[in-house]
Design a protein that fits this description.
The protein has about 140 residues and is an alpha/beta fold. It contains seven helices and five strands, in the order αβααβααβαββα. The protein has one domain. The model has no long low-confidence stretch (mean pLDDT about 90).
């Protein structure tokens, strides 16, 4: 099995599940604006980057490999991220800066959260109302 095949298998099968109301997303912009506070703010919540699936994909070194392109690596991580958001239910904790919005949040995470009917709230607010801040 080559690297791409192994990575796709990991992305499609390794654990991404979280308990109800335990999922979180923290944008890079928020981490930079709050470098010491953000980890305390999410507490024991689970980010995609905390999952066994993500950790195994990182171990495979997809972005350092000569066997696959950056675009292919991005696609593989997206497979896993989609699975993560499809399995989340309840309230999501989202730490996003108010002044600048991360493109990844707008292009990937927010649409996946909105598509999942099992996710009803973001930061305790109706997810559709919360999303209006970023889609208007």
């Amino acid at each position: 099995m080559n690297l791409k095949e192994r990575a796709i298998l990991v992305a499609k099968t390794f654990k991404v599940r979280t308990e109800r109301d335990r999922a979180a997303v923290v944008t890079e912009g928020y981490k930079q604006a709050h470098p010491y506070e953000w980890e305390n703010e999410i507490g024991k919540k689970v980010k995609f980057e905390d999952t066994p699936c993500y950790k195994e994909l990182v171990k495979l070194g997809l972005y350092d490999s000569k066997e696959i392109s950056k675009a292919e690596a991005d696609e593989i991580f997206l497979i896993a991220r989609k699975r993560f958001w499809q399995m989340v239910c309840g309230n999501v904790t989202a730490l996003i800066p108010e002044t600048t919005v991360d493109e990844h949040w707008l292009a990937v995470d927010l649409p996946l959260i909105l598509a999942n009917t099992a996710i009803r709230r973001i930061n305790g607010e109706n997810k559709l109302e919360f999303a209006k801040k970023y889609t208007a």
